Amino acid sequence: MKKLSMLLMAAFVLILAACTSDSDVEEEVAETEGDAGNGEAIDFSIMALPNSLDPHAANDGYSLYVMTNIYETLVKLNQDLELEPGLAESYEQISDTAWEFKLREGIKFHDGSDFNAEVVKANLDRVRDEEVASPLSFLFTEISDVEIIDDYTVQIHTDEPFAALPAHLAHPGGHMISKEVIDADYAQMEEGGNPLTEVNRTPVGTGFFKFEEINEGEHITLTRNEEYWGEPAKPESITFRAVPEDQSRIAELTSGTADIIYPMDPNDVQQVDANEGSEVQQRPSANMTYLGFNTEKEPFNDENVRLAIASAIDKNAIIENILVGIHEVAETPLNPTVHGYSENLEPIEYDLDQAKEYLAASDYPEGFTAEVVLNSRTHQDVATYMQEVLSEIGVDLEISLMEAGAYQEYTANGDHEMFMGGWGTVTLDADYGLYPMFHSDNIGAPGNRTRYSNPEVDELLDNARVEMDEETRLQMYEDAQQIIIDEQPLIPVFHTTLLTGINSDLDGYYQYPSSFPYLKDLE
């Protein structure tokens, strides 16, 4: 893992310096005359369907798994985890506070409308529009203006230097939506409708798959975009089906009903690998799974309570006994694959005696009862272990398993006391791993579900966003992480190994460290 971390950090240094030109771009807009492919229909079973198909509305994994196949971004991460042009033909930083993007010409949205500079401005203006109130706006708060230079050139201006802008534009929050649908969404808002409605109802991108149908609560089907501007997708269609139960997903895979299943519990890996015709693909992630506290609610507004619980949990025992040695112990908020991870931090150590001392020093020396909410079997197994060990210090843990959508809404609204959660640092940079999770501006749906607020952490994260000296920037992230560890609004528990069950006859499957599946080349 350490070697991989070094490679990814090196890759991100290249990312921040990336300024591409026409000569760097080998792939040109391709004509797709004749037969676009003869692939099969792919059945993909996931735990839940998306909360929304509007890129400006949803930041949960299940939404992003589907949307990354419908929409595209100006800049994208390739499979070597390097930034490269996407819908932009080239891009460069032309001043400390301005980036210029040359756009590919001749690209059409699924509705036949043109992709151009006006579309880019409409998208970036919308995601930052306070009336729209996108939970993804934090990605682009540094943008002050999007200037149209000509039909296929835009300049993006920032209030201060923001070296991570290309990486943020590669995030699904930077997906380009048809301006026709954006205009329709604003039109229904003017008539009293809710924002972020029409795009979800009519998701139109430029991607290699296009939206076909949705059966609420059951499945979403995408079909191959036969007029895709680049190399067309190999599968004829992808159907994402909601299958909440782990064993039901496994049964579908092993019986041949499903081609791919995700996620998987570590305890099921051997079962799938032992079945003829199926296998588990294991890949490194940029994820961190944690036990979170609602720091606005008693007793979790008491730092000593949080430290008591953190000290009482033996993470190594969880990995070995609950997760069969597959995942990695997490001591810090950032996964080692993320640029900004530091080995210099001092984590909270497992110490049951110290845990009892912390609780004795709190306002709840006799203990208390609290509910932990979660939405997966893996998290339930981990919480069951925690339930047993926390009883030793007087904490009575009640476990509530919730449906994925209800869980997202419950924790976003702050109705919870404790929760098991996960965060994937999609950009592989500390800004995205820390700013949405711990900055007080992002309490709720954007990412800060612990409702944590510390002015010193806010200042460090704000300053790091615009700091151009990389050594200084990394030190800011290290300082912020140490404060977060010392105050424990959440307990990092483990870093995930991505586990995907797949039909052994399928080739071409890839999964990014963010956990997003790349399905274009499946055959």
Automatic annotation (TrEMBL):
It comes from the Bacteria. Pfam families: SBP_bac_5 (PF00496). Gene3D superfamilies: Dipeptide-binding Protein, Domain 1, Dipeptide-binding Protein, Domain 3, Periplasmic binding protein-like II. Residues 1-17 form the signal peptide. The keyword Transport applies. Residues 82-443 form the Solute-binding protein family domain. CDD domains: PBP2_Ylib_like (cd08499). Keywords: Signal, Transport. Belongs to the bacterial solute-binding protein 5 family. This is Glutathione ABC transporter substrate-binding protein.
